[in-house]
Amino acid sequence: MDVTSKTSEVPEEPAAAGATAATEKVWKAGRLEPMPIRKLPDAPPSLHILGPTVFLVALGVGMGESYMWPRLVLVFGPDIRWLFMVGVTLQAFVLLEMARYAMATGESIFFGAARIFKPLMWFFYAAAILIYMWPGHLSAGAAAFEEVTGIPWQVTACVALVFVGVLFSLLSVIYTFLEKLLGLLIGLLVVGTSVIAAMVGSWDDLGRTVSGMFAFGYFPDEAMTSVWFPVVVGSIAFAGPSGMQQMWYTLQLRDSGAGMGAHIPKIRGLRAAGEAESMPSRGFMFDTEDPAELAKWKGWRKWVTFDALLLFWGITMLVTISFTVLAMSAARENPNVASLIEGGDRDAALKAMSDAFASAGSPILGTLFFAFIALIGLNATLGLFDSFSRGQADMTYYFVPGAKRFSMSRLYAGFLWGVILFGILILLFGPADGPAGILDTLAFLSTFAMGAYCVVLLLTNNMLLPKKIRPGPVRNVIIGFGAVFYLGMLFYCLFRFGVAVG
Amino acid sequence: MTDLKQLAQYCLPAASVGAAAGLVAGGLAAFVGQPAGWAVVTGLLGLGVPLALFGSGYAVLVALGKVPAGVFAPAAVYWVIAFPLALLVHAVVMEWVVAGTPGLPAEPWKFLAFRALVSMGFAIGFLWMHEQIGRLWWPRILDRNQYARRTVEQYVHLAAALQARKAATGRGGKKRVA
Questions:
Q1: Partner-chain residue, chosen from B21, B43, B161, that has the shortest CB–CB distance to A192
Q2: Helix H segments across A106-228?
Q3: Domain presence at residue A21
Q4: What are the transmembrane regions (chain B) (predicted)?
């Protein structure tokens, strides 16, 4: 690996500069263009709650928290939640390490992967298309909306797809709007679930939920069967952001101007694509030999740690605790719910939790539960479509020959409308969740991508960053554990039971 | 000197977050065909009013400079007390509606302790929405409201720091060569 241990003096863009005498410091990282040294901006105050993690929370608080884990609790009891605790805590560390590379360079983790070994990046490029072209998340939210309104879910899903496309195309600066909209939706979700959990739950439910998070090692025999083990593995992968969502977070960090991302222009909507600034062909590095710059770096780490712990870990935990408390109330209201789920009634968990809401005082709260699921579906749709288009546009722009003649905004719009049109075709003419045979492969790819990005993180942060800002041994061990955790469970599942992930 | 009218005006975003929680429940009650009276009592009066009042209390503290705007820790401390009390009012009102006489829930200390723990989630959501709505409301009234003006100044100061950061890094609209 061609990585210098310190910055060196080389000409900047010699072809453009016409071999003039202009030189500047650069940081050589991997096999691609070196990163010019620029000033690191000052970090914002770390205590204000609005940051780019809003995206990760929007993506992370999804069906795993509201459906898959409560379902496991209904079947195996709250002690199974220690696995959720491990999954989400691991994801918080992944978030911090993803942020390390993105904030130090202004580059996405995809660019970092390409600096290590280009086929790594192409793997993520292909995996993103295979995983996220199916409109499964949207279907779930639309189905819940049908429970509330009676409007057929295909209609809602198609309207939502077109709405998202038009919305993102009309926006001047996509990030700014999306941050506000998701902020409001998540605020509503968090306030709502807290109030409902407070009305429905009890001290004993909460006590059992919280103590279950620390019941390390609890794993009932039934969970080791071919029916449930793949479901458990899938649920662990869906604890917090699953699939490639953490990788896309590095793009949102860049677009929000965090760390060296301040040197990279923002992506604009299609309508304002002509106003977009030209994208630099690589990221930047700051001078890690300068104590003042290192002090600013510590400020940025503090800022992102606050985001990771309070917003990401805290909100994900709170929402899932609320839903688990609801699930336990459901078990009281409907004691045979576990046997219904074990008997293969996949909708029983959702219906039982709706009953739990209703038991708080009136049937309106059962309706409210489905409204929350619909809200989660909308959040996931907005976040995933934006992130998918952003990630694919980023990789296409930098690594597909000739793609630079289109602006990043136009590439973004191309991927966005591509996934929307494919989604509409599938919703109208095909199986909404994608062909059943492919789904297993997609679940496999999603978990495999998570194990793979842990490996990529270890490589990028330890090989591409200057020594002074590399992660310490404890963090490396935790991320290494993540790689073994995801890939190990996945392959065990595959070889022991012959299925990928439930 | 404290101006009550201005304070009330300043508190609208905070009150609206609390009211929203009650309105969602009440609105959905009407939507699924429950009697309007039931919807109003359980949702809006029982829960929305106490949360709106406590929310306004928090906003008053911000307006008077007792706690900083948009910072999490003071909001968490405030709601760990206020949220259980709001739910207690709701439980008493519900008992009144169902049984005809107001009454405390069973094991009131456990009742309060559980809600105090859940309040952390409400505090984050409240603060989050309070900032989002406040950003739309306070700039509209700052000419005639000293508290809104002070809060907006705090945010302008923060924005100025961010702008200075952009300027220092040359991000402010200058075209770059790929």
A1: B21
A2: 109-116, 118-132, 136-149, 153-170, 174-200, 203-212
A3: no
A4: 12-32, 38-64, 76-99, 111-130
